[in-house]
Write a structure and sequence with these properties.
By secondary structure, the chain is α+β, with helices and mostly antiparallel strands. Strand 4 and strand 5 form a beta hairpin. The relative contact order is 0.17.
């Protein structure tokens, strides 16, 4: 009885720990990643990603916006042979892009529009030449603004 309780709490802790990871689009609930689906798949979703943002860490797919963003091309869904990535799951990445105005050079009166130029959804609006803001009604959390910002003012 004591052993099963201990395992229960270990699983609960691990879920909370891993839930901070950013999953690919069309991902299921987090607990699907703890089943045996991703452990032996070979990382087909990561191999199919032309933007190279899907990384296999701890045997599960995670998104890294360090070098690029997601075009939502669905190649990762097509490559997934297990019932993990599926078009019936929510389309967008379950994360929220934020802007730190103290790190943003445009907010410091320097002309910079790298975030707006890279945004495929026109979700970054400027108040004049300066002061970019994220329009969350348009933002799909694709991450292109994160990878192109010279001061890393954007984050998840």
């Amino acid at each position: 009885m004591e052993e099963s309780r201990r395992n229960f709490f270990k699983k609960m802790f691990k879920k909370d720990e891993v839930s901070k990871y950013i999953r690919p689009p069309h991902s299921p609930k987090e607990d699907m990643f703890f089943l045996e689906y991703c452990v032996d798949c070979g990382g087909d979703c990561a191999k199919s990603c032309d933007e190279n943002i899907i990384k296999i860490i701890d045997n599960t797919p995670q998104i890294s916006f360090a070098e690029s963003g997601c075009t939502y091309c669905q190649d990762c869904v097509d490559a997934c042979k297990k019932p993990v990535l599926n078009l019936e799951n929510p389309q967008y990445i379950n994360a929220k892009v934020t802007l730190n105005i103290l790190s943003c050079v445009a907010w410091q009166n320097v002309i910079c529009s790298s975030c707006k130029d890279s945004c495929l959804d026109n979700a970054i609006q400027f108040l004049g030449l300066f002061r970019p803001e994220i329009d969350y009604d348009k933002c799909t959390n694709c991450g292109f603004c994160i990878s192109t910002c010279p001061t890393q003012a954007f984050s998840i």
